[in-house]
Write a structure and sequence with these properties.
The chain is built from 6 helices and 30 strands. The protein is mainly beta. The termini are far apart.
Length: about 500
Amino acid sequence: MPHPSSPIDRTHRFRSSARALMAGLAAFAAATIAPAQGASTCTAVQPGSICLANCDGTDNGIFLAVPPLVTGLTLGSFQLDFDSANPYKPKVTTTAVVGLSLPAAFSSINLQFTGAGANLAISGPDGVQSVLLSVADYNPRATGSSATSSVTLPLSKDNGDTLGVVNGNTAAFGNFLKAVTLQSGDFKIRLQGYADTRATASGDGSSVDLCLRYVELDQTAALQGLGGLTDAKVSKPSVKGGSPTNGIELSVPLTINSPSSNIFLNSNTDAIFNLVYQNGVVGTVRVPNLSIKPGVNSFVGQAFVNPDKNDAAAVAATSALLTAFTGKQAAQVTATGGRSSNMPSLDTAFSAVSLSLSLPPNTQDLIVSASFKFPNLLTLTANANLVAFNPFEAPASITYVKGTLTYSGQTIGTIDTAVSGFTLPAGGQATSPSLTLHLKLDIASIKALLVTLGGKSIPVDVTSSLTIDFGGYSTSLSYNQNGVPTVLDL
């Protein structure tokens, strides 16, 4: 096709039919833009060139050597929707605004952009091309024009836009998601690859649909990381029950505040963390559907206190945790070493998360009152009955009591006995069967107490070790309570 020799010739071509207009446009551009070296038709990418072609596939188009057309890229809210059926291909929803600088040859042509498709490799903070952004070639869905020097392209999970693995490297994919999860504040990602755009070209009353293919893109864009999900808080946990296999079950209301203003992570999977206290793994906590949006995110986690019985440190830490919880002391626990329930692509990210959580304690006394009866002082024993309260939302049985009871600094006696039939209803109280109190006072001192205080309520301090059973799961803890109202009687 000869190049037009004058503006009149170019205008004549531009006023012809749509097919001829496309040919004229190509010739018009070729008259002012140097043809690319090498192949003359659009059969493969040629660096430094774009392909100008019909979108209907009736010709192969021509390559034109041009400076980079894309001058900038910004991303709006960036949403990832994961699917366990295809865990390494989450769907993407965002809005990309692409800045353009078109050659002077297009200055008299109005290009109205209507669609685009692309395959772009994304590098995270480590500089490794970790994920592939695939933008489906869906027309129409782009807006913008040569007049605005920009194209706005909405990506959507409904249009099949996805992230994917680069060259089968699932580890790099996981590391990219880990960076998204751990980074605080703005961080840059780099997008590299080629895009195809669709546009309507118009001028002098005629128009034609055309495609600009192999448009090179190499730009950075900013995202805001999730900050490691470290801003996490637990409100009052509640004991729901227990079993010999799973241990003590707790419901754990949890909030996580995301500092990111533009990342939405719809994981569609549970996150399971080790629950650590005083360097011992005391159990696990499961956060259902750990999906994160900007701001406050609320969950109700499920924790199981169930240490490895062969791990002495874990058993000791569990006892210390339960001691603090029942003894009105907040406990600082850590949820760490996370994994997903069914989304392996997120395992690397979850494993790097460490949540430091202050576990609010029980605030109510476990021992309501006590009574001691002395049927035979010669045996130096008494019958003790304890009225205990269960603050939990599940029944509990006290199966062993070992304790020391003192009054006004003087040891009255000790209890060291297994107990049967001492079951406390959820949120209720019960009286123990008679427990043997081994007296540490001589007969004269006991008689003096009875004369002075018999039938009256006195404040007794209790230092004890209790074995408690929740649904067949047995555990021990220390429990101390001062000022237990206690009645002495013959």
